[in-house]
């Protein structure tokens, strides 16, 4: 029987917490990682990605997905070319269809002003798809049409003397008192060739059916449409519904639209009041709904909203890391998706190495209340959850997140959570690292005054292939860890251990990594064979 101390370090509910010094981390936190995620009982390599369906002809700048009928799912993609000409496409399992307004009469038609920074918001209402590109009148795609329709000037651009009106966003709101309406905000009106911006003005449409579109946006004595200012600081950015209310955010503040018992068209249908000063949105599309909450990002933090109060989920966990690595030039291209299959919100963002598009994703497991380390992304411009594509067909019984690539040679959509490699069979570099690891013995933690000599470690791991393990340490909590040689062990083996290089440190660090395109692993614990070799007094 050896004199080794046998210590087991479980990895249960591990949360990525880079904002906290590693010596202050709890037993269920780690400080560095890439392309790994938390399982209920361990840390595992992320699943891979694959390109799907037919490529769109030009560079994607936006995408969304939804049902056109009970069983027909489609993706809608906005693109641009080098001349900033914009075209819209519908992507199905059958191929790609150009649905740009006017394409039926002129197959070469395009929209102007489609730069990489065009501001697009969308809504699905039943089987009708509504689009606002902030450059012209809102558009919509009816379930029986293969071409977008532009809302008429008579319906949308109704002000006397105004030749053009654009909105910063347009969203759907199914109000309990009047039904479906569209709400637009941050209006710009052109009068005699001069643009006048009304950054805190909203307007909403006449009510309409799930299978229809608003008959008009113009306020009259016989409908519910209206236009008014709202009490916020800064321009309106986006809006979302939660429960029976609709919330509109500026960069700084949030107002709430509360339905009022509807009696006649001369009475107001909403009570509008300031809900919160200090909580807003960083840009459009940087929020998402879950079952009972809305998650979003402003310049202050990452938050969750339950209909009455905003609560930080990033402070003293990932906030400083996230904003410190968010590219200040392209920050307004980040977006958020609710991955319901994994019970997590996913924040796609451009980091400091990005050339313009989202090349990283960080996720928050709202069922476990934990953060996952960043994941590499292939320059995404927008994403959404949709049915998994299997053998060229949509599997409506399975969901994944799909995103559009905004740069690179391929113009296909990318499906996540599939396989063990990135697109084109690229390897997935994985890293899990924990510094200043506390060794818990049967008599409690090893005192900081002691040095620990680690002889061997045995990972409790499932999967295929091999993993690399490197052990290191330091003699103070602020010192950078010195790592020894890297050991490798097969996952399915009769000798499941790694022998460490000679070492004796007060604090222990460990790195687990792999880089392949075929294997997967799930690490639940590490068993250590150590000796306490020194005690300082």
Structure in words:
- With 537 residues, the protein is an all-beta fold.
- Helices cover 2% and strands 52% of the residues.
- The protein contains two helices and 42 strands.
- The strands form ten sheets. The chain has a seven-stranded antiparallel sheet, with no helix packed on it. Strands 1, 5, 6, 37, 40 and 42 form a six-stranded antiparallel sheet that branches.
- The radius of gyration is 27 Å and the shape is elongated.
- The two termini are 30 Å apart.
- The mean pLDDT is 94.
Labels describing this entry:
537 residues; mainly beta; 7-stranded antiparallel beta sheet; 2 helices; 42 strands; 2% helix; 52% strand; elongated
């Amino acid at each position: 029987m050896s004199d080794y101390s046998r210590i087991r370090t479980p990895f249960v509910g591990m949360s990525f917490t880079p904002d906290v010094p590693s010596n202050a981390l709890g037993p269920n936190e780690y400080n560095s990682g890439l392309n790994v995620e938390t399982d209920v009982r361990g840390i595992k390599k992320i699943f891979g990605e694959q390109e799907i369906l037919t490529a769109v002809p030009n560079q994607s700048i936006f995408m969304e997905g939804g049902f056109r009928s009970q069983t027909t799912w489609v993706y809608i993609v906005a693109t641009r070319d080098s001349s900033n000409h914009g075209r819209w496409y519908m992507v199905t399992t059958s191929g790609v269809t150009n649905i740009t307004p006017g394409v039926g009469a002129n197959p070469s038609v395009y929209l102007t002003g489609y730069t990489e920074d065009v501001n697009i918001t969308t809504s699905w209402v039943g089987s009708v798809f509504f689009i606002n590109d902030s450059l012209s009148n809102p558009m919509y795609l009816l379930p029986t049409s293969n071409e977008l329709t532009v809302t008429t000037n008579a319906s949308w651009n109704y002000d006397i003397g105004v030749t053009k009106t654009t909105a910063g966003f347009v969203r759907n709101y199914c109000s309990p008192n009047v039904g479906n309406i569209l709400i637009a905000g941050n209006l710009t009106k052109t009068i005699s060739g001069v643009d006048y911006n009304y950054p805190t003005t909203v307007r909403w449409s006449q009510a309409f059916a799930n299978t229809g579109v608003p008959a008009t946006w113009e306020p009259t004595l016989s409908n519910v449409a209206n236009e008014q200012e709202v009490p916020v600081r800064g321009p309106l950015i986006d809006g979302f519904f939660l429960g029976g209310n609709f919330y509109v955010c500026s960069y700084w503040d949030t107002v709430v639209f509360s339905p009022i018992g509807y009696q006649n068209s001369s009475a107001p249908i909403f009570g509008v009041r300031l809900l919160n000063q200090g909580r807003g949105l960083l840009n459009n599309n940087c929020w998402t709904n879950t079952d009972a909450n809305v998650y979003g990002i402003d310049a202050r933090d990452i938050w969750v909203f339950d209909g009455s109060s905003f609560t930080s989920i990033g402070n003293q966990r990932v906030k400083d890391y996230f904003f410190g690595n968010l590219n200040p030039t392209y920050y307004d291209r980040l977006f958020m998706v609710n991955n319901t299959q994994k019970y997590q919100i996913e924040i796609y963002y451009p980091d400091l190495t990005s050339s313009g598009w989202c090349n990283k994703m960080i996720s928050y497991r709202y069922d476990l209340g934990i953060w996952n380390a960043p994941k590499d992304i292939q320059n995404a411009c927008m994403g959404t959850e949709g049915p998994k594509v299997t053998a060229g067909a949509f599997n409506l019984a399975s969901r994944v997140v799909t995103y559009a690539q905004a740069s690179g040679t391929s113009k296909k959509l990318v499906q996540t959570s599939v396989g063990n490699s990135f697109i084109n069979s690229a390897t997935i570099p994985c890293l899990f690292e924990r510094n200043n690891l506390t060794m818990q013995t049967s008599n409690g933690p090893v005192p900081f005054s002691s040095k620990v000599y680690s002889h061997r470690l045995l990972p409790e791991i499932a999967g295929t292939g091999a993993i690399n393990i490197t052990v290191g340490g330091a003699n103070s909590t602020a010192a950078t860890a010195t790592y020894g040689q890297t050991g490798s062990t097969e996952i399915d083996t009769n000798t499941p251990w790694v022998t460490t290089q000679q070492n004796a440190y007060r604090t222990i660090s460990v790195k687990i990594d792999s880089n392949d395109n075929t294997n997967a692993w799930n690490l639940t614990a590490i068993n250590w064979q150590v000796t306490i070799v020194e005690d300082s007094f």
